[in-house]
Prior knowledge:
By secondary structure, chain A is α/β, with parallel strands linked by helices. In chain A, about 30% of the residues lie in helices and about 20% in strands. Chain A has helices at about 5-30, 135, 165-170, 220-230, 235-260, 270-280, 295-305, 325-330, 355-360, 380-390, 400, 405-410, and strands at about 65-70, 75-85, 90-95, 105, 110-115, 115-120, 175-180, 185-190, 190-195, 210-215, 285-290, 310-315, 335, 365, 430-435, 445-450, 450-455.
Amino acid sequence: MNAADSFASRTRAVALAVLVAVLSLTAQEGLAAHKGGAPREGQPPYLRDAFPSTYRPLPRSDTLVTHATILDGAGHRIDDGDILLKDGKIEAIGRGLALPAGAIRTDAHGRWVTPGLIDIHSHDGTYVEPLTTEDANSNDISDLSDPNAAGTWIETAVNPQDPGFTRALAGGVTALQVLPGSDPIFGGRSVVLKPIPAPTVQQMKFPDAPQGLKMACGENPKSEDAEKGRGPTSRQGEIAFIRKAFADARRYRADWDSYLAGKDDKAPKDDPTLDTLAAVLEGRIAVHMHCYRADEMAIMLDLSHELGFRIAAFHHAVEGYKIAPLLVANGVCAVVWSDWWGFKLEALDGLRENAAFIDAAGGCVMMHSDSPQVGQFLSIEAGKAAAAGRRAGLTLAPEHVISWLTSNPAKALGLDGRIGSLEAGKDADLVVWSADPFSVYAHADLVFIDGAVAYDRSDRSRQPTSDFELGRAPSPFE
Amino acid sequence: MTRAALLLAFLLAAAPAAGQVVAIVHAKAYPIAPKGVVEDATLVFAGGRIVSLTAHGAPPAGAEIIDAAGRIVTPGLMNGATQLGLGEVLGASDTQDAAVQTGPLGAAFDVHYALNPNSVLLPVARADGLTRAMSYPAGAATAPFSGAGALIRLSPGPDILERPRAAVFAEVGDSTLAKAGGSRAAQWVLLRNALLEAKHYAETSKGEGPRDQLLSRPDVEALGPVISGATPLAITAERESDIREAIALARDLHVRVVILGGSEAWTEALSLAAAHIPVVLDPEANLPQTFDKLGARLDNAALLARNGVTIAFSVSGNGIYLSYNAGLALREGAGLAVANGLPYLDALAAITKGPADIWGVGDHYGRLAAGFDADIVIWDGDPLEPASAPAAVFVRGVRASLTTRQTRLRDRYAPAHAGDGVPPAYR
């Protein structure tokens, strides 16, 4: 192990120790006042947010965007439409809206407006570019010390200086979920961020967004475990492993219930891994499940019912089209690429029509990036996927397809009451596109987050640059 | 699609067109050279070659007529660098022939022996309009060489090899430092030394190389065509300093260099143009993926073309698009280059004539012109929009089926089957 690796390991150990310490402390604070017998005050440690958001919107003015082709994310298209942003919220949407006193007007004639895009599957901040040999041996995509990394919180690793955030923003992304990787079976807790770089992750954290738990089935975890010589080396082993982990979590949760009800004097020993799984059983954290094959997804659905966890979405879901009605019947979303296929055995049956076929069955489908490269071109991803569906005979209007990037991911994240569509009262997260957003030629001209211009293609002072990139790359303009 | 319709599609696709005279009429044709567009074009081909391209031309008597109805017609596309035909499942190394990690081979590693015409990846690329590609080695055992690349054509059937050893590939920069001992300085020393040894070997009687020669006989012989100027030396280089070293190497050793990658090539656009060094670049590369790519920009293609550098495209897509979707990704990349300042006609050239000229087949492929191979695509929309697709693809005059394993799966699982009592395996 070289010095850099050793440093990385120490850093990780310290981060974990801090995490555990914070959890224990908050648990004890909440319970300190109790005297035996009666129900105790407070809540079990697994329901607390250890790293609360300190996000503040950027400076903003009330804005009236006029004369745009609007796809509202709720299924409607408004030609020559206007939208009024007030105090960071959508005040009104329609035609011929009056310009209120003090508001500024943005003429979007010939341009398109959509809700801000939501990338439900990003590794920005942990798959930090540039990648170096330091990342080869230890990186922050997921913790690999155990197949069960449920006790990790990905936000404790996110590096806000990853240039991926600024690129996602320039591609029209206004919220993204950073997930741990798929090598552990239980990858850990996810976090939802706004791609406005700030010195700390808390400043980027979407206030009060639910966490998710990343889980993975299939090739990735079993090959990782086989390579490491520990943990399940087969798909059946993965299922047994999951069953055992949730059995432990069920007991742990019962112990806390018993203690908080006053039936038990001794508080259970705080366990970050079981905390997360208990919160899942409590229904407070939904599972984001990495699965490729249709048969595996069907097994996971049964397992989720047996063990009592909720799968918000299958991620990658390369064979989702094979079981579209099953996904619909279970109310589970599918998170897909437009055209990644073939690179491993479980991805051989990828179809460009995947999203369209799941959609046609009435499913909740959405695009995702999984890579900073794709994370800047999600609109093109949806365009490709929809085109394949149309070629297969399906009717897919732009005002419907936009839901694959907006309202559907909002729903899968449990944020559909706040973002994902342009409706009065919702957060003013939206994009003004130079053209039909599904075209390869379109640019995000303006990106609003909470009513503030977070990115302006025509104004370099409104294009955030990460500290890493500052003063580093050659530029033809300097 | 029903089974009968599928069968019909097969029959139509299999109809041999090689001897027949075919005229595509009412096309919006892009001949590539001369630059421009021919409205209401008539494109005639026979015997695998293009006979004529004329505006409002009358088709020859007896010709099979295909009415393009105003749709865009271009040459079949060429991807400047892929690994098509060299692998099936990226994650399963026993299905991969694109690289060797151990053994004696460097420049002599020659991928054409491994080409698999039955790869299911080829029909997918072809159905996206790709009819030609460079299939290049992903790496060899002796630094800094990767081996010799082969030009392929995506013809139906086993005959896909256009030209073996069309270029020798080498790679410098951060991703392959370890093989050269840990420094790019060593990569350049090894590369220059290899070329000097090959030059010496070519000038002396065979078998009398100096005892301290680093290169094995197969490797030094593989470099002979590079020394003679018959074959280009493709150097994967991203960082500005490496681009400059590649220019210097071409000048000092009188070899034809092609830059592959070239994230920061735009910084040296004028020097590259002056040295007639072309660049095969990834038009989607704009991230600082490694320290060698800090200057990666989406207008790389535009800046190079504006300054007179011949360009071609190869889209990596995390390595996936080098083999999977090598046709669709190429068009998307070209579209993104247009969105970032590359003139439309230059983008079309970068996926046809550009790579053809760079890899040495521009005398018979890459244009809609008399005497050129009848690699032709009729598009259902703008080919640079990834949402578009070919309506018909001809490779050397033969109409290719657009059926792929993926379209078979699509038809098997189409929503119209919802409620079928029969499992998909019986469809």
